[in-house]
Amino acid sequence: MHDDTIPDDVQPRKRRKGIYILPNLFTLAALFGGFYSVVMAMNARFDLAALGVFAAMILDSLDGRVARMTNTQSAFGEQMDSLSDMVSFGAAPALIAYEWSLKGLGRWGWIAAFVYCACAALRLARFNVNTGVVDKRWFQGLPSPAAAALVAGFIWLVDEWGKRGGEVLYLSWTQITWVTFAFTLYAGLTMVTNAPFYSFKDIQMKKSVPFAAIVLIALGIAVINIHPPTVLFGLFVMYGLSGYVVYAWRKAKGQPASVISTSTEEPDERGLHN
User: Fold this and answer.
1) Is 154 within 8 Å of 240 (Cβ atoms)?
2) Which of 195, 174, 199 has its CA nearest to residue 186?
3) Residue 237: what pLDDT?
């Protein structure tokens, strides 16, 4: 007769915790988009560099949704996503802008690129810390993918409309360089403001929508295809201004302008709820 009892000193072998492939595959693809953008900028292919940033944006928007739909969220995936965002929407746009025109400004050029890169890092760190206390319908400050779209979109637009180094839309190259400087600083500093930007996270993809909504989506795709650089850049400019409009509207109505619902210990958010 066999003894089925297990001795106390024999413990069952623990199963090693693995990594979910599907959502991290999208994250790695987004990271590749940012890396590809930097390589293309080094080779003076700034149109492809901008496209790499926009491709990374699409992939970055999918990894979280895929993780939630397949119930494969993990702390590893969250950290991986933040590191990928720092490369694709922090370092890559700053380096692209610097290689494209900012280096012609000397010290001012790399200062603007660094300010953007540093603000992207600060914005991502604050986002990770305040995940549990911020209203999910709003972002606190301009999200880093939208900031990257402002910088890369402007470069893509000018590259499409005219030759790099020459006159474009009645602007000299020197003027275009200073406009790039302004866009880079605006995008960077807006990431670390408290202006509320709509997150679109309350849109339920699984719910049914009216037939007219599908028609509007089809029309939107058709409009974008008229001239993608112009239309996409225009959309992100409007989005980049929308946070300040909402902030001013809430202030005028006497409503709280901050999207933080409760205080946190790190970083200290006291005084930011007005």
Assistant:
1) no
2) 195
3) 94
- Other beta carbons within 10 angstroms of residue 44's beta carbon come to 11
| Cα three-residue angle 270-86-227, rounded to 5 degrees | 110
Sequence-separated (6 or more) residues with CB below 8 Å from residue 263? 133, 269, 270, 273
In sequence order, what are the residues at sequence separation of 6 or more whose Cβ sits closer than 8 angstroms to the Cβ of residue 86? 120, 121, 124
φ, ψ of residue 182 to 5 degrees: the values are: -65, -45
Q: Which amino acid is at 36?
A: Y
How much is the pLDDT for 209?
66
> For the chain, what's the residue count?
274
For residue 268, the model assigns a pLDDT of 47
Domains and CATH numbers, the chain: 21-252 (1.20.120.1760)
| pLDDT for residue 34 | 95
How many CB atoms within 10 Å of residue 23? 25
Instruction: Give CA separation, 9 vs 6, 12, 14, 96, in Å.
Output: 8, 10, 15, 60
pTM of the model: 0.82
* C-alpha–C-alpha distance, residues 224 and 49, integer Å: 19
DSSP 132-199: TTB-TTEEES--HHHHHHHHHHHHHHHHHHS-TTS-BTTB-HHHHHHHHHHHHHHHHHHHTS--EEE-
Check residue 204 and give its pLDDT: 66
Q: What confidence score (pLDDT) does residue 173 get?
A: 81
Low-confidence ranges of the chain (pLDDT < 50): 1, 15, 262-274
